TrEMBL record:
Homodimer. Belongs to the NAD(P)-dependent epimerase/dehydratase family. This is UDP-glucose 4-epimerase. It comes from Parabacteroides absconsus. Pathway: Carbohydrate metabolism; galactose metabolism. NCBIfam families: galE. The gene is galE. Residues 5-270 form the NAD-dependent epimerase/dehydratase domain. It comes from the Bacteria.
Length: 346
């Protein structure tokens, strides 16, 4: 019988791609999402790719009683993948209480309900922001790098949530957790049926870049060219969203099949390559043949200068590896933007 998984925030960017990979791997998926930063039409894209439409409940997971009723209506869920969260660094600096309320209350509700419904494991969507700005000797970043004071409320919620999970399990909660620290997910499904589609003005680099390239936005702002990097712009580790999604399936398999004695495991998910913002723009232009109007502006509060992953632990222990090239990933993002235009969106 197919195992049933709850994907909290499953119509969002990473959640939708993970739902596709879970269904392709034979899992049955129930999505709970409040659609605050996603669109119900994502379900159509998932169905077109996989041939299966996941069960869907529109619900704000801060509503604990509503969440309990949703779980009662979908019995037999064995594990949960928690994506549901506000996720923009810049916005979190401006609206910290929104981030603390959304990101922390949601996790606490899920953790309290898991034993009630016999769930065996939670995969938590964390972030490389927990490392802050790593000291040079800790680049590339391994899982044992020090956790630094967060540079934004968003980053702080990820640190706090990791601590909440570890404390809860240490206290004897009857489930396991795998915490996945993402670096920078970009790109879209190769079918161009799903991709990154934020509501309103994009907070993330790639959708803003592709919207600029297609003429929706006037120009892309590069926040700072005076950092201590080869070209002065920030360096990140950009990972293909489908590669990232596949890691969640492996993590869920690992917990449900009890492949590890550890109650909490942490893995960095990245490519191991640092790419600057200006390099990324140049690579996009070469890969697609489309120019991106851009300008240099001042630094943005909360931004980290440079960070990229050492993904060896995930490579060895999970047997997972990022395989898509940056060029192919950027082409997939552009193809998705073109598809949106053809569908009359934006």
């Amino acid at each position: 019988m197919k195992k049933k998984i709850l994907v909290a925030g499953g119509t969002g960017y990473i959640g939708s791609h993970t739902t596709v990979e879970l269904q392709n791997a034979g899992y049955e998926v129930v999505i709970i999402d409040d659609l605050s930063n996603s669109n119900i039409e994502v379900l159509d894209g998932i169905e077109r790719i996989t041939g299966v439409r996941p069960a869907f409940v529109k619900l704000d997971l801060k509503d604990k009683e509503g969440t309990r009723k949703a779980l009662e209506a979908h019995p037999g869920i064995e594990g949960v993948i928690l994506f549901a969260a506000s996720k923009a660094v810049g916005e979190s600096v401006q609206q910290p209480l929104k981030y603390y309320r959304n990101n922390i209350t949601t996790l606490i509700n899920i953790l309290e309900l898991m034993p009630e419904f016999g769930m065996k494991g939670i995969v938590f969507s964390s972030s490389c922001t927990v490392y802050g700005q790593p000291d040079p000797e800790f680049l590339p970043v391994t899982e044992s790098a020090p956790i630094k004071p967060a540079m934004s409320p968003y980053g702080n919620t990820k640190q706090i949530n990791e601590e909440i999970i570890q404390d809860t399990i240490h206290a004897g909660a009857p489930f396991k957790s795998i915490i996945l620290r993402y670096f920078n997910p970009i790109g879209a499904h190769p079918t161009a049926e799903i991709g990154e589609l934020p509501n309103g003005v994009p907070q993330n680099l790639i959708p803003y870049l592709t919207q600029t390239a297609i003429g929706i936005r006037k120009e892309l702002s590069v926040f700072g060219d005076d950092y201590n990097t080869p070209d002065g712009s920030c360096i990140r580790d950009y990972i293909n969203v489908v590669d990232l999604a596949k890691a969640h399936v492996i993590a869920m398999d690992r917990m449900l099949e009890n492949r590890s004695d550890e109650k909490v495991e942490i893995f960095n998910l990245g490519t191991g390559n640092g790419v600057s913002v200006l390099e990324l723009i140049n690579t996009f232009e070469k890969a697609t043949g489309v120019k991106v109007p851009h300008k240099i502006v001042g630094r943005r509060e909360g931004d980290i200068e440079k960070v990229w992953a050492n993904p060896e632990k995930a490579n060895k222990v999970l047997g997972w590896k990022a395989v898509e090239t940056l060029e192919d990933t950027l082409r997939s993002a552009w193809n998705w933007q073109v598809k949106l235009r053809e569908r009359g969106i934006q």
